[in-house]
Every structure is written in C-alpha cells, then in structure tokens.
Amino acid sequence: MPKAIREIAGLGPNDLGDEILTSTQPLILRGLAASWPMVRAGIASDREGDAYLRRHYQGATVGAMLGGPDSAGRFFYNDDLSGFNFYPVHAKLTAVLDEIIAKREMNPAPTVYVGSTTVETCLPGFREHNDLGLGGRDALMSIWIGNRTRIAAHYDVPDNIAVVAAGHRRFTLFPPAQLKNLYVGPLDFTPAGQAISLVDMLKPDFERHPKYAEALEHAHSATLGPGDAIFIPSMWWHHIEALDPFNVLVNYWWRQSPDWMDTPTNALMLAFLTMRDLPAEQRLAWQEIFRHYIFEADSDTAAHIPTTAHGVLAPLDDDGARALRAQLLKKMNR
C-alpha cells in the first residue's frame, strides 16, 4: 500500500515559509485554504461553488477536454497510442459548467475537464479573496475544473502547491527515481504536454507492467478535501483522481531558478539529437563530462583557469544566457 504523506495542520494562507516551499518531500497542508470564499461555497453545495465561479467569470474562452462515458474519467491515449480517448474544445466557461451540471447524475458520465487555466485571465477578481502568500515568489496560479476525472502520473519541472477548492481528490506520488518503473509513454506526443505513465493505476496490469510493483513500494498517497493543499516538489510523479461530480483545484507553480534558465527538458531533447545514438563507450565518456561539468560542478571545477577565461564555466546571468542561447541557435541552424 502507498505510504502516507507527512501532514501539517494549523497553517493559514499566509503562513507558508521556506521550510515548506523548498521541501524536497511532498507535504499535506490540511485546512490551509479553509478560509477561502470559494472553499466555503463549495462545501455548502456544488451549486453554490458553481455560482461562485460564475460570479467572477467575464467571458474569456477556456480550453476543455471532453471524454466519453467509456473513458471512466481517464484522459489517456487510444489503444495504439496514435491519438487520444478525448477531444479538446474551446468554449465559454459557463458552457462547461452547464455540461458538468447536466451530466452530474449520469453514471458513468461523460468526462468534462478544464485544465491549467490562468486564474487572472479566466476569473478576474477571484484571486483577491482566494490566494496563498508564497513569500514573494512569482508563481503562476491556475484553476482546474471538472467532474470525476483521472490524470495519469506525470512530473512537472516547477514546484507546485495544489489546493482543493471544491470536491475531493486523491493524489498518488512517486519519487523521481521511480521513472524506470512507471512505463512512461512518448515524450513528444502527449495528452497535455507532459509525458505520462502508461500504467492504469486503478487497475494495474502487472503482467504487462511488472516493474510497477516496485514503484508501488515507493508510492505516497493521500485524499484531500475542500481547503486542503498538497506541496508536490519538482520532478515528483503524481497521479490525480477527482472523486466527486463537481471538483475545483487551484494550483501554483514556481521554479527555484533564475528567469533566464531554460527548462532542462530542452537539454534532454537535444541529447537525443546529439548523444543517445553514439557508441556505448562514447556515451560513457559524455556521461563523465556531464558529471564533471554539470551534476557535480563546484568551485573547484574551473579553479585552475584564470577567472577572465572562464567563459561558460562562469556563473551565468541574463546577458550570458542570452549570448549562449544565440550561439546554440546559430550552431543548430544548419
């Protein structure tokens, strides 16, 4: 069975310190957003939660995903991974909310999901009364709205705090080291931008995915209710189930890195182009080069070189990053 996630209670929206926001382990923050008007409305009833969203909505189009009843709420690939079991639409949020209400008594119901929509764009004024203090971090605040849905296990590069604003959600997390046991699908053809585990975590097929049994030995899980929050560290895999006919999640993403840094995913994709198909001995040589210059770099790495000649070995800043990016683009544009 998955392990419990460490829980912290008694904190309010403005009580988050660096001990929490820089944690390398997941944390459950019970009741963190219990004072939010959105949370109180959702606890009163689904219709009051729905009405609270509508009061802030001013007509912006949102992206939504729609799946048939046979999907059982799981947004995933089709059988041969050539497409998906849902289709995307752009619609008014009010139309999506109407669809959720209309289908709430169906079992199984078609799946309706608005994912990763910027709060300020979609719901002006919402953040004024429903927000977290993150110590000055420049966090992207997004909202997720739907009925009973399942989001396959994936990782995000930024750190993440997710707040259950209405309904209940079950989170199952895996440390980054479990990548090898999660049977990850395509990297460049994904349901929503991030590569996902191909394991059906509610009905795992251990004959097809035998190594998933080891991943489960390292899994962490918790069910959150309205006002509860979870801190998910960067690169932790997470599978999310929305358990009720009406669910709202608000999350914050931020990175512990300068703005000029590109996503490491770009380096991974470039490595496919430049290293993955090298002979084995050459790959080992490059593994050592990356260990020396990247993964174990310290003050001694370039200590034998005059400071004026450090070049890319020197700490980067905005100007240095811009120059390096220009060099790379020039080299690749052939």
In brief, what are we looking at here?
The protein is an alpha+beta fold and 334 residues long. Helix content is 27%, strand content 25%.
- Specify the CATH architecture of the largest domain: Sandwich
Query: Based on DSSP secondary structure assignment, what is the total number of beta strands?
Result: 15
CATH class of the largest domain, please?
Mainly Beta
CATH topology term of the largest domain:
Jelly Rolls
From the alpha carbons, calculate the radius of gyration and give it in angstroms. 22 Å
Question: What is the share of helical residues?
Answer: 25-40%
How many helices in DSSP terms? Answer: 10
Main sheet: strand order: 2-3-13-10-15-8-7-4-6
SSE ordering: EEHEHHEEEHEHHEEEEHEEEEHHH
The CA-CA distance between the termini, in Å, is: 52 Å
CATH superfamily of the largest domain: Cupin
Q: Segments where pLDDT lies below 50 for 5+ residues?
A: none
Structural class: alpha+beta
Largest sheet data? 9 strands, mixed
How much of the sequence is in beta strands? Answer: 15-25%
Global geometry:
globular
Whole-number mean pLDDT: 95
Q: What is the domain tally?
A: 2
Organism: Duganella aceris
InterPro entries: Cupin_8, JmjC_dom
Protein name: Cupin-like domain-containing protein
